[in-house]
Amino acid sequence: MAARSLLGALAAACVLGGVLCEPKCYWRSKKCSTLYCVEVDSAYLTANLSKLSYSYDNDAVYFPGQIKEIKPCLRFEIAHASIPELGDDSLPVSHLDIKKFVEINLRNIALESLGPNVFAGFVNVRKLFLDHNSIEAIRLEKLPMIEELDLSFNNVKAISESSLPRLPLKIFDFGSNQLSRLGRVTCNFEQLLELSLDHNNLTAIDELKCNTMLVSLNLGFNRIESVSNETFRSEALESLYLNDNELSNLEVGVFNNSGNLRHLYLHNNKFTQLNGDGFRGLSNLGVLTLDNNNISEIFPRTFADLKRLTRLSIVGNPLRVLLEETFWGLESLRYLDLSGMPIVYVRNDAFLGLTHLNRLDLYSTKLKELDARAFNGLHNLKTLNLWNSSFYLHPMLFEKLASVDNLILGKAKGFSEYFLETNSFFGLEKLKALNLSGMGVNSIYPGCFQGLTSLQTLSLSNNNLTFLLVDAFIGMPSLRVLYLTNNNINDISPNAFYELNQLELIYLGGNSIKELAPSVFNGLKKISVLQLSNLSIEVVHPRFLSGVDNLMVLDLNQNKIRELNESSFVGSPELIELKLEDNEITTIQPRAFEGLNKLFFLNLTGNKITKIASETFVGLRVLRKLNLAGLGVTQLARGAFAGLDSLLHLDLSGNNLTELSPDVFDNLTSLHSLDLSANQLSRIEPGTFKNLKYVSNFLINNNNVSVLKRNTFAGLTSVHTLILTDMNISVIEPDAFDGLNIVNMIRLTGNPIKAIKKGVFNDLSHAFFVFLNSGLNEISESAFDGLNSLAVLTVNRANFTRLKRESFKGIRNLKMLTLKDTRIGTVESYAFKADQNLYILNLENTTIDALEQEAIPPLEYLEIARNFSGYIHMPTQIYYNFSHLSLRRIAPNAFIPSNKYRPSTIDFDYNFLTVLENGTFNGVDVQTLTLNHNNINTIRPGAFASLRHLKNLSITFNDLKTLTRETFQGLDSLSTLRLEHNNLTSFEVGNLQGLGHLSLAYNKLKELPADFASLANLTILELQYNNLRKFNYIFPSLVAFTVQGNSLEELDTVYNSTALALVDFRDNNFSCKYLWHLLHFSVQNLLKFAKSEPVPGAKHYHNIICIEDDASKTDGPLESFLEEFNRTGADLDLLLEKKRSFRVGLQNVSDLIQNITDRRLIAEYNRSLHVKKHFDEVGQIGFSEILLVILCAISIVALLASSFSYCVNYAKRRRSLATAQSQLTLINDRL
Description:
Transmembrane segments: 1186-1208
Largest sheet: 36 strands, mixed
Oligomer: single chain
InterPro entries: Leu-rich_rpt, Leu-rich_rpt_typical-subtyp, LRR_5, LRR_dom_sf, LRR_TM_domain-containing
Organism: Photinus pyralis (Common eastern firefly)
Keywords: Glycoprotein, Leucine-rich repeat, Membrane, Repeat, Signal, Transmembrane, Transmembrane helix
CATH class of the domain at 791-868 and 875-959: Alpha Beta
Number of strands: 76
Low-confidence stretches: 1-20, 56-71, 865-876, 1111-1185, 1202-1231
Signal peptide: 1-21
Shape: flat
Structural class: mainly beta
């Protein structure tokens, strides 16, 4: 099954992807097994179909002798092909039991003609698809069982009775051809049920009396001008498509025999008028479309016989007048759409008879006049859409529409309903929503809404109302929501809303009401939200809320109120939230909020109140939240917060307070949150917060308090977080934080505190986080005493000349100490906390000049973070990272000894160290020590003496010149020593006999010490780029050896080191003859050796440069090994199976032959050309050097000239290389 799906997808990809696939016919399984041919032509079918037999395997083509069991039915399909012609012999499938084929699909194969007997033998075919081709003439015979024939989308111009002899067709699709006359051909199909002749050129329809069983007939998109009463004789006809023709009238009795017709499509024709004669007999019609004709008149009772019609579509006609009883008889119609037509008048009783109509759309018409009697008979109408019309809305217009519950009104552009008269909506007793937005209304007469007893939502937004009269809204006892936004209302009469007893929401925003008079909202007994924002209100009279007994939210934001007088809000005993932000209030009279006994939230932010007077908030005994932010308050009078016994949240941020009287908050005994941030407080007197024992959220940052006095925060016993950032604090007196018993975090960043003295943090026994300010330059001894729970301490942007002894003593539970962007001159002994509780020291962008004796504590982890993300990835082993600290000196015994924690790695990379003193690393036991990228020029004897377990030492990129045997005293366990990139001229082995890896690369060594041979355990030796002239040492364990860039003329080590596997001897002074023998030995012994890019004009082997002498008299070219490879080729597979470890060696041989045969270098290479890293070895320029420069210039010119020839011959040489590589084998029996 998977194979079949894959092949089907591949066939689709052949076409969609533009990929040319091979022609193929194969079987695939569907409901019936399908013989599927793809990318075939007529010749392929003729030649191959006769060979094909049954199969259900998608991937196989079975030939005679491989017959499998077949399924009950077969299909034949050709796809993704171009077959212009199919002759009578083009489908040779008679050997496949042709009688079992039930369907043939030849659609979209560019077919132009086919023989009349091409389907001979397919006697049981039921379905034949020939659509989407280019057939111009058709003749089909010998299809006695055909039921469905699709000839659509071809180029057939004519068919006759002889073209399609009598066939038992039930479905015939002949759409989208070029047929101009039908004739009597359909009489050959007496059992026809569905006939499609759409998209042809038919101008008339001959009799279809032979087709008495037709159920569906599609004649759309032709040029038919008329149909007679003899055209449609089938009493079974249910669907008739006559759309998109040129019909202008219907003859009387045309549908006399079509009593069963359900769907009739007449849209896009040329009807100009309709009368009742055309639709007689259609008693069962359910759908009638007449859109986009030229109908300008519909006679009364035209649809009288269409009693079962449920859908009538008539839009897009130039209908101007609806006459009386136009829709009589359409008693089953539920929806009538007359929108978008130029209807000017609707006569009385025009809709009479539409007894079950639910929705009527008359929007976007040109109605100029409507009479209430026009709606006679619409007893069940629910929705009436009259939007974008210009008729006059006169009283009693809707008195006949008692069932309407949704009325949509809106004036056309340029028309306005200047006033709404009394009884304008009388009769709409079930109406629930009325939208009068944008009608241009500027006046509402009392009684206008009389009779709207069920109305719940009324929108009068975006009109031109300027005032609201008394009794303007009477008659709507059920109204819940009233929209009056964006008018020009500047005056509301008292009692204007008096009868709206059920109103819950009123929106008045976007008007210009300057004054709220007393009792202006009287009667709104159930209103809960009153939206009065952005009204330009200047004056709020006392008792303007009288009668609004259930108001809960009052929004007066963004007005121009300047003063709140006494008892301004009396009359709203249930008010919970009062919004007064962004007004122009400068004065609040005492007891202005009296009577608001249930107010929870009061917001005054964005006003201009400079003083909060005594008793300002009297009466707000249950107020929970008071927002006084950003008012510009400079003074809080004594008793300013009197009466706020239940206040939980007070926001005084963003004001201009400079001081606080000690008793200002005495009455706020229930307060939980106090925000004093962003003021100008210059001092805080002790005792100011003495009664605020429940405050847990306290903000006082961004002020100007230079001194925190003793007991400044006394009373704030519930505060968890103390934010003191950007307060200009320079001095913190001892016990300033007394009373903050449960504070867990203190932030002091952004202050100019210079010194932290002892006693500052007394009583902060629960503080978990402390963040100190920038600019610190002194931390006194035991400055952090009292911080018994402190886990995280952060010091930011400090500048310590000396970090004094026991600066962090007393922090017993410290987990992380962060010094960020800080400069430290000297770290004294025990400056960092050193006890049994280890911690993380994070030095983020911090520098330290010197570490004194016992300055480095035993830590759990030390991290130098350049861009700290807030999270340190803890390694599995203890790791000290002192890199990038700018360290210049480490004193002897700088590490405090610890037997509990032993770091695995200590990293001093990228510092400025110059000398390592005796005892520098005493007290620490480590396995890896790195001192790379410093300026170390001296290592005192005994510097590493205590590192008995050190295994890896790296001192690269320094300035070491001489190392004696005493230098590495004590490093008995050292296995790896890296000293590359120094200036070493001498090196003594000393006690380093256990070394396995030694790197002395990139130094200035001319010779190695006599005891160098004692390094018998060496496995890796790196000596590249020194000045060595001799190297005759033998190391039996040596595996990798690098001596590139020296001045060696011989290298016997390669011959005598039996374990050697990798070697790099490039860029030495080997003669070409010696190099040839060296390479010969390396190849024979399967050594992996380094290669270089060729140097133009240089003599080389295997791209390894050599010095020309008598090298031309070598023992023979390396290419001679190819003959030996060929002779031993037969043994290759067997030997490789036995000696798999030699495969790497064989690859070396392959690489060697490739490089020898892949390049032809010209010119010669002089001994003096050898390039050294250290230029102090170069003497005076001799004749050979001058000659060399000349030769180089000639070589460059010659190389450019030979480039073209090289490119031409390159491909040929690559083919030669491939041949050589394919013949590689073992060199001799010694392998």
